[in-house]
Amino acid sequence: MTETEISLLRRIAAKDRKAFEALYHRYDRRLFAFILKLTRRADLVEEILNDVLLAIWKGAGGYDARSRPSTWIFGIAYHKALKAVARREPEPTGELESEPVERDEPESLLARRELATVLGRALRTLSHEQRAVVEMSYYYGLTYQEIAEIMGCPVNTVKTRMFHARRRLREILPGMGISGGAGKESR
Amino acid sequence: MTNGNRWERLHKRVWDLLPWYVNGTLIDGERRTVESHLAECPRCREEMVACQRLGEAIRQTEEIAPTAHPARLARLMERIDDEERDHGRGWLRALLAPWHGLASSVRATPPLARGALVAQLLLLAALGSLLLRGPQQTAAPAPAPAPEYQTLSQSDPAPAVPPAAARLRLVFAEGTTEKEARDLLLGIRGQIVAGPSALGVYTVEVPADPDPLEKVLSHLRAQPRVSLAEPAVGP
Question: Number of structural domains, chain B?
């Protein structure tokens, strides 16, 4: 799979649209979710996503295969997302969960949205960097080395961001059983 | 260094690694270190459970992420075309947008051969001049061949101006490919103007002429690749 993605990126560097479409289908949903999770800004996601995909189309020649293609791609998404958010802050509505809910939404989906709302509210109290580490670790299952590469920072910074994120989430989400007993840990 | 200090340092190190122990990405040596410390540290065991719960909660929100939307690719390709057109090479494609397959073959042709192909296609440029009446016309790709082409956003008050465009909400069925979505849109001369929303709803603009919106909607609803087609009420 990784091998194929490397060759896809090479073909994209040669302006092969079919390869770009294939890569798009592999990454579109993941990147959409990643950017949304990172920014909590539904109003910005598509614009950022398009910028990321365009950057891949234009910059695939710069991919040197030293990291996994996904790491390279998520690195672009991370930096584009942070830049876009920095340009736009503060949020116009402030509430991600103010998104309109479709009337005929099934109950199971509503329950998930509710969980997502609570969790989203807690995650929004984190800095973008802390949130990014949490999402990349738990949602995307990345190694801390990969996260460091994506964020362009030392691995210890990743661990420190995660440390503070965990402590903050423990304070906010005791009801979710994420309280642990070890809020005493300090750094 | 005392044993207590050494233990404290190990404890801190393991504490920091727990999220990646839980997500299963630690290398063997680190994993073994974590496991042997967990066996003797109740605080870390408790924290590990907390990390697991957080991970589960975060992964459960996966379903609210929108499903893949092939139509976004269509729009993205348009943007790439626009950018390349801005670089002075892609302008011909704008004229050829109605013949999408043909335009694709231009793209797929090596640059030298492309020159020859483009020369032949220049014969079509006379038609293209119809499309180049103003900046708005060139910006909007023509969705289908139309002998008497009018853009949707035309503000010219001439009598030939078609009725205002109509908007509808469209949701593609799961698994719809980019080509299927594009064909569907071409079939109704529709253009995505907004979306997808978090729930995957696109807002599509269609010319109100010649078909009334109701006809377009019933056509769409009959398509297996459309799971929802409704007139747009709001903006």
Answer: 2
